[in-house]
Amino acid sequence: MHELSIAMNIVEIVEEHAGTYEINSVSDVEIDVGRMSGVVIDALRFALEEAVKSSVMESAKISINEIPAKSRCLACSHEFEPDDIIAVCPECGHLYADIISGKELKIRKIRYEE
Ligand SMILES: [Zn+2]
Predict the structure, then answer these.
(1) pLDDT-based confidence at 114, cuts 50/70/90?
(2) Domains of the chain and CATH, by start
């Protein structure tokens, strides 16, 4: 499962981070997942429940932010929300647009217990 390896990766990063500061317990972790990242948020949430067991994240509150997709038209610079990887500009009908957000998969915040 794709999401399980991502979840394990997230736990690994947090553990490494906590290790640097010699912290045994993390209280909050906030993760950004773009709508076009290919990650299914529910599956990731489920995978994280397994992945955090006996890690520093075991009792952490995990919040996942879904980041909406945004494209910018290469012809007229109009910004819009695409429904697919191939998006047609609603302003001028141009077919090529850059995806400017929605592909992110990152840990935004790690909070430690006081
Ligand atoms: Zn356009």
Answers:
(1) low
(2) 2-112 (3.30.2320.80)
How many whole angstroms from its chain centre is CA 2?
14
Residues having C-beta closer than 5 Å to ion ligand 1: 73, 75-76, 78, 89, 91-92, 94
92 neighbors 75 (Cβ within 8 angstroms): yes
> Are 105 and 99 in contact, with CB atoms under 8 Å apart?
no
The model's confidence at residue 72, banded by pLDDT at 50, 70 and 90, is very high
Q: How far is CA 4 from CA 42, 58, 100, 101, in A?
A: 11, 16, 26, 23
Is residue 5 a contact partner of residue 82, using CB atoms and an 8 Å limit? no
